[in-house]
Design goal:
Elements lengths: L1 E12 L6 E12 L3 E5 L6 H8 L7 E6 L2 E2 L5 H11 E4 L11 H11 L4 H14 L15 H12 L6 E5 L7 H16 L3 E5 L3 H4 L4 E6 L2 E4 L4 H13 L1
Parallel strand pairs: 3-8, 3-9, 6-7, 7-8
Antiparallel strand pairs: 1-2, 1-4, 4-5, 9-10
Amino acid sequence: MHVMEARGVRKTYESEGAPVRALRGLDMAMGEGEFVAVMGPSGCGKSTLLNLVAGLDAPTEGELFVAGEPLADKDENELARMRRRHIGIVFQFFNLLEGMSVLENVTLPAVIAGARRQQAESRARDLLDLLGLGDKARSAPGVLSGGQRQRLAIARALANAPTLLLADEPTGALDSEGGLEVLELFRRLHAGGQAILLVTHDEGVAAPATRIVRMRDGRVEDDGRPRSEAVAAGASAGTE
């Protein structure tokens, strides 16, 4: 099964001048457990793609599927439920809840999704231990280093055991040491079977990925697979 599939996706933003065509007929798919990095110059449509996959925006044309589920014609409540079931998002600037403890930041998404608090806290503690933050559970996020704050953001994104983890320039706000911490964590998560879609302009950040998709002008320029594999995948998609 594809954890994510885009078919002929176009996204045009209206502006006072000429319309901005962020995506121009993008086709792309990800299999279970894949670690894919999307690269390309600024303005090529990388972040637009991530927002569409997360259901935070809608395409102008084309079809998007997450875990085999079409995103078209879903209202905001349905998209929110889809995100809770299937999507974890890691942002460049953490987006942590500063008025809550480290543990509460990770517990909250599961509680919102309907888990019992005791169950949600148990999973949150397990995630914090896994990510090396077990001793910071009662701390406020503000006392953490940059690398620790991003690890906390990743723990929160994993709270509901998402099908797909999305990461938008996840090391962009970190120093080199913090960035290396986060990249090593992504390697470990992928080794454990987590599907990851990461957007970056940095070759070093993309290095842990098992496939690098290169975009230009709103399209996939190179899907990162050997030619024979890409042709086979296209043939398979055509028979579904």
